[in-house]
């Protein structure tokens, strides 16, 4: 037997004790040694089992052949949570020793749960005789206790506030077709609510104790208790929490139950299956055009899941507006393609067919301008005035989206009772509490509290985290540089192959594929593959860093992880787009003095029409590839895993499998499941807003993807996954400031794309200044001659390189070639220096950026100011509800006190009356007859 050291543990006085040991067998199998430990004085539970006490074992019963039952075998106690483990007694003898510790921990853990008031019942598996399912039930007293601990808001009286009629009520005959069937999903009764208090139960609207707490609330409280229950004790040191037991294999799974099959209607009309309703009215693809049943989603899965789908639905609805405008812009581009003068000049055999372009690399050949005819025609679809209008529109659209979302979110906060959900109500994570060994005075309360590390220790952890994040960001940038080198190297090959007249087999594609296009497509595909690989690696690194930083609450943990993952994803997904948009073709020099990367490769040049078409290609490939890959992950993988699991269990028919075992066969959803859903959509939001000036169809693709995404996520939640543990949430958390940051950055990126990536500004400068006198003989403003004006002349004899081999492919009388830039021609006193047109264009670009940014930012500020974050009606209803809730609680408490004091008052009055009568009789007995007559 071998031993290895585990994490250090601390005694109650903060002194480090001897390290615990964990065992490993001869084959090297070992348990995870990272322990969640808790000193007794810090233990957040009560009624803990003392060392040496008798451990009560869970009662084992047989399956009662009721496959859809949600209750214990007695049919009365509801199942609030399920724990699954593998019975060690049925393992092979030679492996039994390594499972004994797990068995002891499990028995101790279950005894702790029963000591805390929970009721347990174990049932053997029907499919696998090695599995055991432990059913957990929370009695009424335990529910009341933890409802108060978790500050759960519960009804005190039906809400009698009449909501204001909606402006859409006049269109009910039309809008009702876009909402779920009200006969199936009935509107929930609204109540005034207040945080539950166990000693004031009479103040709350309790008609039926079995229905007062919803299944989602019961599951949430059960999960909280499981995270606090201890599983091992060593002296004054307690180890606790279901998470550690799951990680070490003590339990194989822990989950709440679905309320039935998704495709079978409930037999009880009064209590319909919510899972069945969600599948038919939400997850079914036939309802793709309908609004989501958000109240039912929130009731079944909790506020955190509900707020995600509310945000996703609202984002998709707003995308519909952007998609319509973007599609109109695209159609305008198709129409303007026929009238694009500069595109026609490129394709004209008498203009573009006679212009010989200089080689774009040291080994490249001379080429004719009209070989890029197809690319120029495609470019004219996206590089036009419609794109400018659409870019400005999208800058306004993103502001309206964020402002209206805040208003909609405020309405949901009111309706879902999360208005006063504060951080103080969220309990610390067990991993945080387990390491609280230092004392600190709370600056707010002035009370001494325990923290896991000192100020210096916190700074060290944060510094290590920042350093690790920076290292991985530099790694991404290194991969981008490698792809750039690939582009430079492979461009030479494509230039030779596609412009070699001797290769007849490539003749059919030469007309449509240019060296620039071939390089862009292959580099984009490679970039996409690299992005996917780095995503997998960095995900684990980000989780490790966040665990190392040890955030206090679950919200803090997710916010910290969110910022790290988004920063990485931002660099990973967008860096190649930023390179094409703002770096490529900007610093290339001229044929006589080219700028070289690494002293060997000439900087990439753009097509004569600019790099906009390459940016469009990059966006289309990444957005399309990302959508396909995500759908494969979200649809095919869960379905395939569940199918294989069912195939392995095909010996037992599904009719005799209990509900808890059917759910065990489904895929688990991790606590970070929604995090990845948010991340996917926020990255898409960046593509839709940051680079929309180059790809007006991005909102259309995003809209189509999201319509599928909503139903795919709904299908996954209702049919392929176990029921997620409900969690409370007030808003979308750290994603809100991230979206606002993207919205601000989008204004600058789109203005710079139009100014520096597209050719719109140079064409406007030519049209208004250089197409007429004194720079031209034309008397009217025109776009004719723009191509000739935008291409400078280079004398081949001025090249410092040996062009003998290259010159052999050129016409015999060729003395000059053209290149994309605004420079003086050879023979000019300032030959090859930037000419006056260059400075006009540069000034116009800078002026355009400044003017557009100021106009758009001013408009955004005005919209943000005039549109309140919380609707006035919602503010009134919140104030009204607070007032009425206060009055109701006060009146109820007063009645309760009066009712309790009434017997005492009656006794007091009766006692006083009795004493008065006695005194009167005694006084009469002492009076003489004369005194009585008087």
Automatic annotation (TrEMBL):
An example GO BP is:
calcium activated phosphatidylcholine scrambling
Q: How does it sit in the membrane?
A: Multi-pass membrane protein
Taxonomic superkingdom? Eukaryota
Matching entries from InterPro entries are given as: Anoct_dimer (IPR032394), Anoctamin (IPR007632), Anoctamin_TM (IPR049452)
List each copy of the Anoctamin transmembrane domain by range. 297-881
Compartments where found: Cell membrane; Membrane
> One Pfam family of this protein, by short name?
Anoct_dimer
Spans traversing the lipid bilayer: 308-334, 385-405, 471-497, 517-538, 682-704, 738-757
Q: Which residues form the Anoctamin dimerisation domain?
A: 71-294
Keyword Transmembrane: yes or no?
A: yes
Q: Which Gene Ontology molecular-function terms are recorded? A: chloride channel activity; protein dimerization activity
> What family does the entry list?
Belongs to the anoctamin family.
Q: What is this protein called?
A: Anoctamin
């Amino acid at each position: 037997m071998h031993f290895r050291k585990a994490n250090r543990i601390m005694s109650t006085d903060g002194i480090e004790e001897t390290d615990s040991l964990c065992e490993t067998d001869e084959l090297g199998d070992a348990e995870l040694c990272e322990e969640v430990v808790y000193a007794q004085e810090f233990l957040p539970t009560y009624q803990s089992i003392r060392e040496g006490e008798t451990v009560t074992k869970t009662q084992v019963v047989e399956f009662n052949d009721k496959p859809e039952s949600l209750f214990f075998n007695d049919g009365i106690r509801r199942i609030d949570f399920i724990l699954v483990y593998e019975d060690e007694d049925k393992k092979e003898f030679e492996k039994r020793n390594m499972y004994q510790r797990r068995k002891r921990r499990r028995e101790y853990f279950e005894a702790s749960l029963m000591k805390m008031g929970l009721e347990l019942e174990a049932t053997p598996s029907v499919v696998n005789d090695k599995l055991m399912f432990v059913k957990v039930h929370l009695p009424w007293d335990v529910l009341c206790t933890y409802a108060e601990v978790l500050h759960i808001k519960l009804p005190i009286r039906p809400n009698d506030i009449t909501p204001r009629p909606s402006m859409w009520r006049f269109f009910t005959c039309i809008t009702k077709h876009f909402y779920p069937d009200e006969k199936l999903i009935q509107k929930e009764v609204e109540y005034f609510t207040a945080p539950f208090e166990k000693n004031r139960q009479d103040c709350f609207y309790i008609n039926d104790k079995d229905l007062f707490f919803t299944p989602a609330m019961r599951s949430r409280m059960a999960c909280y208790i499981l995270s606090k229950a201890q599983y091992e004790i060593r002296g004054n040191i307690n180890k606790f929490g279901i998470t550690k037991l799951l990680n070490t294999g003590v339990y194989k799974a822990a989950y709440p139950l679905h309320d039935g099959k998704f495709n079978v209607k409930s037999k009880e009309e009064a209590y319909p299956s919510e899972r069945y309703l969600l599948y038919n009215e939400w997850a079914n693809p036939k309802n793709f055009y309908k609004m989501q049943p958000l109240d039912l989603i929130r009731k079944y899965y909790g506020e955190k899941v509900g707020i995600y789908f509310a945000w996703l639905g609202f984002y998709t609805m707003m995308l519909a507006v952007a998609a319509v405008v973007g599609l109109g812009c695209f159609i305008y581009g198709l129409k303007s393609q026929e009238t694009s003068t500069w595109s026609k000049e490129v394709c004209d055999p008498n203009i573009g067919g006679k212009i010989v372009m200089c080689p774009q690399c040291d080994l490249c050949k001379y080429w004719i301008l009209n070989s890029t005819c197809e690319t120029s025609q495609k470019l004219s679809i996206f590089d036009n005035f419609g794109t400018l209008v659409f870019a400005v529109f999208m800058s306004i659209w993103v502001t309206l989206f964020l402002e209206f979302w805040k208003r909609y979110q405020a309405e949901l906060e009111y309706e879902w009772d999360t208005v006063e959900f504060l951080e103080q109500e969220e309990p610390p994570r067990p991993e945080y509490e387990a390491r609280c060994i230092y004392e600190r005075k709370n600056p707010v309360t002035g009370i001494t509290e325990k923290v896991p590390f000192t100020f210096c220790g916190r700074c060290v952890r944060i510094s290590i985290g920042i350093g690790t994040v920076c290292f991985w960001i530099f790694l991404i940038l290194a991969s981008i540089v490698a792809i750039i080198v690939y582009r430079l190297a492979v461009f030479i090959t494509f230039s030779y192959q596609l412009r070699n007249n001797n290769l007849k087999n490539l003749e059919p594609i030469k007309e449509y594929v240019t060296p620039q296009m071939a390089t862009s497509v292959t580099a984009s595909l490679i970039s996409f593959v690299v992005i996917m690989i780095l995503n997998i690696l960095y995900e684990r690194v980000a989780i490790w860093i966040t665990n190392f930083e040890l955030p206090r609450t679950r919200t803090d943990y997710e916010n910290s992880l969110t910022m790290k993952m988004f920063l990485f994803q931002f660099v990973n997904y967008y860096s190649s787009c930023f390179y094409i948009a703002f770096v490529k073709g900007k610093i290339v020099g001229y044929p006589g003095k080219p700028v070289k990367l690494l002293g060997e490769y000439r900087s990439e040049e753009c097509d004569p029409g600019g790099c906009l078409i390459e940016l469009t290609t990059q966006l289309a490939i990444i957005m399309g590839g990302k959508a396909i890959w995500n759908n494969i992950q979200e649809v095919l993988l869960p379905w395939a895993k569940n199918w294989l699991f069912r195939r392995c269990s095909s010996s037992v028919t599904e009719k005799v499998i209990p509900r808890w075992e059917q759910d065990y066969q489904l895929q688990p959803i991790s606590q970070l499941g929604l995090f990845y859903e948010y991340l996917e959509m926020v990255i898409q939001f960046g593509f839709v807003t940051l680079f929309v000036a180059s790809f007006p169809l991005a909102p259309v693709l995003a809209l189509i993807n999201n319509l599928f995404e909503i139903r795919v996520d709904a299908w996954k939640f209702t049919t392929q996954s176990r029921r997620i543990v409900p969690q409370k949430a007030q808003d979308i958390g750290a994603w809100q400031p991230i979206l606002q940051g993207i919205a601000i950055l989008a204004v600058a990126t789109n203005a710079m794309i139009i100014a520096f990536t597209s050719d719109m500004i140079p064409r406007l400068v030519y049209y208004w200044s250089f197409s007429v006198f004194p720079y031209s003989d034309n008397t009217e403003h025109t776009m004719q001659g723009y191509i000739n004006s935008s291409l400078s002349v280079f004398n081949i004899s001025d090249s410092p390189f040996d062009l003998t081999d290259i010159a052999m492919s050129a016409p015999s009388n060729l003395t000059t070639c053209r290149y994309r830039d605004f420079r003086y021609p050879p023979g000019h006193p300032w030959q090859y220096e930037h000419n006056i047109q260059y400075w006009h264009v540069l000034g116009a670009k800078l002026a355009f950026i400044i003017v557009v940014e100021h106009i758009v930012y001013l408009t955004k500020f005005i919209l943000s100011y005039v549109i309140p974050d919380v609707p006035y009606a919602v503010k009134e209803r919140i104030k009204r509800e607070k007032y009425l809730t206060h009055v109701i609680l006060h009146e109820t408490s007063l009645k309760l006190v009066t009712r309790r004091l009434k017997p005492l008052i009656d006794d007091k009055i009766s006692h006083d009356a009795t004493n008065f009568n006695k005194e009167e009789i005694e006084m009469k007995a002492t009076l003489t007859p004369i005194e009585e007559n008087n």
